[in-house]
Amino acid sequence: MGTISRGLRNAFRNSIRTLSITLILGLSIAMSIVMFLSLKAVGAKIDNVKSSIGNTVTVSPAGIRGFEGGGEALTNSDATTLVSISGVTKVTSAISDHLNSSNTNLIPSMDAGSFGRRQQQEERNGQSTSNQGREIPVGLSMPVMVIGTNDLSVTSNLNVEKLDVSGQTIDANSSDLVAIVGSDLATKNNLTVGSTFKAYGKDVKVSGIFDGGNKFANASFIMPIKTLQTLSGQADQVTSLIVQVNSIDKISAVESSIKEKLGSRADVVSSEDSSKDALAPLQSIKSISLYGLIGSLVAGSIIILLSMVMIVRERRREIGVLKAIGSSNLKIMAQFVVEALSLTFLSSLLGIVLGFALSNPVLKVLINNSSNSSAKTPGEGAMAQHGAMMRFAANGINSAGNALRDLHAVLNYQIILYGLFAAILIAIIGSAIPAYFVAKIRPAEVMRSE
Amino acid sequence: MSLNVPDGVFSTIVGKSGSGKSTLLSLLGALDKPTSGSIDVDGRNITKLSDRKLIQYRCNKIGFVFQNYNLIPNLSAIENVMLPMEFAGMNKYDRLSRANKLLKQVGLDELKQNRRPGKLSGGEQQRVAIARALANKPNFILADEPTGNLDSITGKIIIELLQKLAHSENTTIIAVTHDEGIAKKSQLTFRLKDGKMIAN
After folding, report:
1. CATH number of the domain that B98 lies in?
2. Alpha-carbon distance A26 to nearest alpha carbon in chain B (angstroms)
3. Sign of the C-alpha dihedral, residues B37, B42, B43, B45?
4. Nearest CA in chain B to A11
5. Nearest to A9 among B63, B74, B83 (CB)
6. Of the candidates A396, A365, A368, A357, which has an alpha carbon nearest to the alpha carbon of residue A380?
7. Rounded CA separation A160/A162 (Å)
8. Minimal CA–CA distance to A13: which of A353, A354, A417, A318?
9. Are A426 and A351 in contact (CB under 8 A)?
């Protein structure tokens, strides 16, 4: 029988008390694990959202959105100018064009539908007023869209949700006559990897077929920007620039530098404000989790503290006996610390199990509350207002909205270690004050008759 | 005041309730510190001892027997007896064999040695307490109303046991009591009256 085994045995001396302390403390440890997990999950998601949407600035020629509007396009040298701005890590250029039966043998995969017919009608009306009121035949074919880019990894330029390429992708910096073709367009034209089609009077080789995740993208094809600039006679022209900034904090500075350098020639839109909106619910979950974590750790410490104070007060006489028969204060304190440690260890085992079980449901509740408080998904408005080429802005921001639904708490050995560490911390805090009481008890306490 | 008790003698202190018998005992056993004055035991002033020396004094020089036994309830009889030896730093094997020997000496067979105090009668518990007091071969055993919670027959047996042990272990036993019958059986009786000691 040593100090340790006495402490251990004392922990189980009163089974009802042991059970209740374990249950309450276990719940508080489980709570702290849940909060820690959600703090981590949300923190990771915030970083993720920040890195995916938070750090881009979109530059378009003033007045131009894709094929709409009017004005002068930007140039390759503008892109070079932007790269030199401090904080800018990458500038991706894009240009687009429409092809029709006069300059390609591709058959469009999209039907015009009523929307397409109206657009075509407007175009014709613009060409000749004498056509006004003329009936547009049903089944009129749509143009085929082509996008040129110098970086396929920046998909926000390409109207795609994702870019799954089967076959070979293209070298976006080359001037080769190659393309990756949207899956619908490829099917419509019986194109496979390696086959060719005609565009601008040249033979273009199909390097790969891609799925862009939407019908609009899958009806188009993508080429290296230099190739498209040459073929379409838009040499040196750029209609969209995506500027990536190394930190979300530098976005406003970069945005104003761009405005300064390009002046009224460009419209500059940054994702900063909308990403802040998107991050707000995540930030609120993060602070709830942090307060929850601190609260549950404090609660845990108080539970074990009060239990130990109660136990020490109850055993005053026994402590007096131990002192009277020659025990040192230190040995008695150690015995109580062992007792507190065993109770917290047991509770932390329960807490870890409960934490495993509760983390995802609790995270779900937190998310539901937060999504309700910011019911309007940021970006929806922007999507409605702008044309096709502006989809990317909304895409990024939607992904922040989705971020809430994608949150998952992940448990691993680190969390278990954390739980045990928290338990030891709680036990030490919880037995410090009782240990002081132990030291204060006089051995003569034993002489008191009850 | 001064008490002079030869080695191996069973002595008693008698007096009315509140006369200060128990206080005297706890001062002698260094359980409490006097507010003023000094206590010399075996020519050593125990009021001047450091905390560490006091622990050693309580551990090695003094054995206590209490009115309500004060055994640790979740330890078995033999574990209770082993406790002071553990504090004195004796190894486990020696502790076990000495505790066994002591318990046999006070008349507790091996079956009962592994019982917890709750499963023992009052007399048996007091025997265990006496064995525990003897564990570290103390110079003094201080007993506070050792028969106070026992019936007269069992009380008599316990007193006889204490007398026998005082002789066989050569330990000085000072018992506090208000029972004149016990006082008569002791070799030396001190009377405490109005804070003054009168030797018989």
Report:
1. 3.40.50.300
2. 25
3. negative
4. B74
5. B74
6. A396
7. 5
8. A318
9. no
A&B contacts, CB < 8 Å: 75
Query: Rounded distance, CA A443 to CA A368, Å?
Result: 58
Q: How far is CA B138 from CA B64, B113, B173, in A?
A: 10, 22, 10
Q: Where are the beta strands (DSSP E) in A88-239?
A: 88-99, 144-149, 164-167, 178-182, 196-199, 202-211, 221-224, 237-238
What does the block give as tokens for A66?
């894709």
Nearest residue, CB atoms, A325 vs list B22, B83, B144: B83
What is the SS3 assignment for A357?
helix
Number of domains in chain B: 1
Span A301-333, pLDDT tens digits: 888 889 989 999 999 999 999 999 999 999 999
Cα gap B101→B107, rounded to integer Å: 10
Q: Is residue B2 part of a domain?
A: no
What are all long-range contacts of A409-418, with beta carbons under 8 Å and residues at least 24 apart?
A409/A34, A409/A37, A409/A38, A409/A40, A409/A41, A409/A359, A409/A360, A409/A363, A410/A37, A410/A40, A410/A41, A411/A37, A411/A355, A411/A356, A411/A359, A415/A33, A415/A36, A415/A37, A415/A352, A415/A355, A416/A352, A418/A33, A418/A36
Share of chain A above pLDDT 90, in %: 15
Do the domain assignments include residue B1? no
What's the pLDDT at A132?
47
Strands B172-177, B10-14: pairing kind: parallel
In a domain, B24, yes or no: yes
The dihedral over CA atoms of A396, A397, A398, A403, expressed in degrees to the nearest 10, equals 90
CA neighbours closer than 13 Å in the CB half-sphere of residue B106: 28
The residue in chain A having the minimum alpha-carbon distance to the alpha carbon of residue B81 is: A325
| Containing structural domain, residue B150 | 10-198
* ipTM confidence score: 0.94
Predicted confidence (pLDDT) per residue in A235-255, tens digit: 888 888 888 888 777 888 888
| Residue B4 placed within a domain | no
